[in-house]
Predict the structure of Nucleoside-diphosphate-sugar epimerase.
Amino acid sequence: MNKIDINNCTILITGVAGFIGGALALRLITSTKARIIGIDNLNDYYDVRLKEYRLDVIREIDVNHRFVFKKLDIVDRDAVYDLFNSYKPDIVVHLAAQAGVRYSIENPYVYIQNNIVGFFNIIDACRKMIEMNAPVRHFLFASSSSVYGNNEKIPYLESDNTDHPVSLYAATKKADEVIGYSYAQLYGIPMTGMRFFTVYGPVGRPDMAYYKFTEELVKGKNVKLYNQGKNKRDFTYIDDVVDAIEKIMQKTPVVDRNGATYDIYNIGSNHPLETVEFVKILSEALKEHRVLDEDFVVDDSIVLCDAVVGDVDVTYADTERLYECFGIKPKHKIDDGLKRFAEWYFAYRNQ
């Protein structure tokens, strides 16, 4: 692996107004001297005010004016090429995508455009920078635990089969991995894929389960848990995810036997939890931070339902390679992470 001193780099983050992108920008501004270029199309998949809130927080801590935001849609190929030409990024962290497994069943076209066409536009811009003698030194991109489908073998190893996605969202992420590998092999672009496992924490996405559960409990609605609440998820705290990204970007992959400078890692907690147990822990955190009344009984709000199309039964990351290559182990337990989310949620809701 070749090391990169990111303090001397221009780092492009796509999807910077998103959950992970915003958290990464904050980290890099506070812990490095890198110049950060952030792009986002600020679409209305969920409340744009939360995306603006994330950008405002970034601007507030950017006292040295090292952060530049551009509103840009990655589907616009010419705009993407112009951006790369203007800023010539050393590192690209591609996090922009249309998220959500169930939403992909109802809106497939959006996923093809954003997750495949958009991905291609970003990666092809990296290729063009080689022609301009300003090559991107490391390209990182977000994949997903969903690529493993319903593999019966757990925990999931990076080398496990990923040829049977159970949702279009998962299929687009698998496609990105394959397209990425081809570009790493053809053009020598150093490239690392990151398979994220159910990221949670403060300032998260309202469409994600833990946030939706919170909103439903606050409004006095029932929480529907599919597969009778037996689905297991490898919930991974946002700070642990950002720790991993920051370390990974500083080391480029070695060339594999096919000549590709490419690697991929699971980024998870390695501790799957049943959703019914997760909701109980969440409710305790919400009560502790005054989001719910002290005498709230969560069992009265849980409704157990049958499994739905597109959902997998278990996500469970084997993170041994991540530890071996980067010394990374998750630091945050679920109780602590949900308490931090509840504390933020109370403040955000009452601001």
User: Anything to note?
Assistant: Residues 276 and 325 are 34 Å apart (CA to CA). The chain has a mean pLDDT of 95.
